[in-house]
Specification:
DNA-binding transcription factor activity; 2 domains; DNA-bd_HTH_TetR-type_CS; 11 helices; transcription regulation; HTH_TetR; about 70% helix; transcription; Tetracycline Repressor, domain 2; mainly alpha
């Protein structure tokens, strides 16, 4: 049986690990903004934080990953569970709140990658210096599309190859890509969540337009 002391010790260890991870990311972002991605080494990041090279690679596989966040940080389990739980009920077609709940997942990811406004500014500065990092940050590859489709089909009670679920994910990821470009653009002062919801509202207005009858 685990004692309360064991739990407290484990919690302290996790907080220390999270703090080290944040320091490594903050330092990598700051150095990228100052010098560019090729202008510093992993060893320099470690020296600034006061950890070994081995410790760095316990957290991240590369400098790029340290800047944008770990692949496992795409979504935490609580966010996934909340999304799936939002399905069900009596309705025709996809649940009415699907887009809003997908947006909550995207915002959750951004908050995992950058926990406070200062970290967000640091990340934005790094991406401004090295725009190719935006693609790494968005992680919009086939694996993430597959993961979102799986979550949508579980939530909606649909078959894995359901075309409505596939289109919902494809369209949503396109909106997220557009929002990310807006968010990291020079001079932007709007929160990611506000931009995303504004773009989703615009998308709804497009789909709400009356469709002419087919000949």
């Amino acid at each position: 049986m685990h004692s309360m002391t064991d739990g407290a010790t484990g919690g302290l260890r996790e907080r220390r690990m999270a703090d080290t991870r944040r320091q490594l990311s903050d330092t990598a972002r700051r150095l990228t903004a100052e010098r560019g991605l090729a202008g510093f080494t992993v060893e320099e990041v470690c020296e600034h934080v006061g950890v070994s090279r081995r410790t760095f690679f316990n957290y991240f596989h590369s400098k790029e990953e340290a800047i944008v966040g770990h692949a496992d940080d795409m979504l935490d389990q609580a966010a996934r569970d909340a999304f799936v739980a939002g399905g069900g009920g009596e309705h025709a077609g996809l649940t009415p709140t699907l887009l809003d709940d997908l947006a909550a997942l995207a915002v959750s990811h951004v908050e995992l990658v950058a926990h406070d406004p200062e970290q967000m500014r640091s990340l934005a500065a790094a991406i401004g210096k090295e725009p190719q990092l935006l693609g790494v940050f968005m992680r919009s590859g086939a694996e993430n599309e597959r993961m979102l489709r799986e979550l949508v089909t579980r939530r909606e009670g649909l078959a894995e190859d359901d075309p409505a679920a596939a289109m919902a994910v494809v369209v949503f990821l396109a909106v997220v890509r557009h929002t990310s470009h807006q968010f990291f653009a020079a001079g932007n002062a709007h929160p990611f969540a506000d931009l995303l919801h504004a773009n989703l509202d615009a998308l709804r207005s497009v789909f709400a337009a009356e469709r002419p009858a087919r000949p």
